[in-house]
Every structure is written in C-alpha cells, then in structure tokens.
Amino acid sequence: MENNTSIISPGELTALLLLAKQAGSGILSVYNTDIEVTLKDDLSPLTLADKVSHDIITEGLTALTPAIPIISEEGKDIPYETRKNWEYYWCVDPLDGTKEFIKRNGEFTVNIALMHNNTPVLGIIYVPVTGDLYYGGEGIGSWKETAEGGKTQIYADVKATEWISVGSRSHASAEEASLLARYPVSETISIGSSIKFCLIAEGKAHIYYRQGPTMEWDTAAGQAIAVYSGATMSRPDGEPFEYNKPSLLNGSFLVKAG
C-alpha cells in the first residue's frame, strides 16, 4: 500500500484484477451446473457461487493486504464498534445480482472496492459471462478491459443533451419514474447488478436512480468507477452518499454523468 496519491501500486492492482477474474471463474463453475438455491435470513437467494466467490476473494485479499479488514456480503456481521474507526477496508460483493444469476441472463458481477475514510477510492467490477472488466480509482481514472484483452480509459458522457437512464431489471419503482421526469431522458435501459454504474462510466447511459434498498457492498465499487470516470453520485437531495454506517443498508441514491 502506497500513500494516498496512488492508493495501491501497479503490481497490487494487477493482482486485484486477476483476483476478480478468478472469482468470476469460480462463479461460472457453478453457473454451468444445476443451480441450487437457498434463502438467507432476509429471504433473499443464496447460491453455492456466492460462497465460492467469497472464499476466493477473501483468501486473495488477506494474502495481498493482510492489514486491511474486509466487509463482505457473505461476511458482514462485524459490530459497528469494531469497524467504525477503520481508515482502510475492503467492501466486497462476491456475487452481485444473484437473482440475475438464477435467471441465467448473465447480468451479474463481482464487486471489489477499497475504502479510505469511508469513501470508495478504488472499484473493480468483473462481468464473468462477458469477460468485461471495469475498474476505477484515485490517481488512475476509470478503465474497461475486454475479454479479448483490449484496454480503454472510459469517461462519463457529460455533454449529452438527451439522456439515457439505466435502471434495475428487478427493482423498478414509481418513484424512479417521477424523479427521472425532471431530466432530459429520452430512453431507458433495464439491466441487472452493478453493470448500471459501468454503463454510466463508459458513456452509454447518463443517469441511474435507485429508490429501493441496497447494501453498501452493492454500490461501493460502482461508485468509484463512476466517479473516477467523471460522473457524480449522491443522495437524491444532493448530500454525500455515506458508508460504514451503523447499519450497512443504503438509502436512495442518484448517479449522473457530470
């Protein structure tokens, strides 16, 4: 770990990107079999793929940065008193979009974020089915790597006069339609998981509003990629979006290009 001007070294970044891909491979090893689904305490679905990815990521992060703690969807029961003063920590969703995974539509991701003083300063999102890899961070900007190995710096489209909104395939709301009516939205795309943040970061969409509940690991990596591409993310009232709260449940948020 280097100073805060670069956050991590190039070698550490390479290792982290490989780790996300390894987790994705673990997910696909389950995706290509008969998927068995159980329910968490909140009745949301859980598959073996969640656990496989979680184990790969936590083992890799612990080896790479043993001094940095981890908050993960599959390892989230850390008391607030323990984590409230953490300067750095990892915020991880081993499989974002479990419902999309179960539907077999390919719209699920691996999310890894590095937090510094409760702000996402590095985000990595890997889409296992397509092989697309997105990452963004302080000092490096935001990037997309394709399965074929192409690498491009990506930027939010801050000059568009007609906007494309992107929303959840599984969680659309009436409040979303009401808020989007305030903006020059001419088209709407529905897609699952944190891919929505990536579409804004690469200029393929311009606004994403989420009214329904999410968890901090659902948004941290996507926020970093969007923000370091030139987009903004806040609460709908414009106030900063907060992390490492006593409850890890998120309120509503708004992501915009520029």
Care to describe what's here?
The protein is of the alpha+beta class and 258 residues long. It has two domains: 10-154, 2-Layer Sandwich (Fructose-1,6-Bisphosphatase, Chain A, domain 1), CATH 3.30.540.10; 163-256, 3-Layer(aba) Sandwich (D-Maltodextrin-Binding Protein, domain 2), CATH 3.40.190. It is 29% helix and 30% strand. The chain is built from seven helices and 16 strands. β5 (109-116) and β6 form a beta hairpin. α1 (10-31) packs antiparallel against α2 (48-64) and α6 (195-201) packs parallel to α7 (216-227). The model is unreliable at 1-5 (pLDDT under 50).
Summarize the structure.
The protein has 258 residues and is of the alpha+beta class. The protein is built from 7 helices and 16 strands. Residues 1-5 have low confidence and may be disordered.
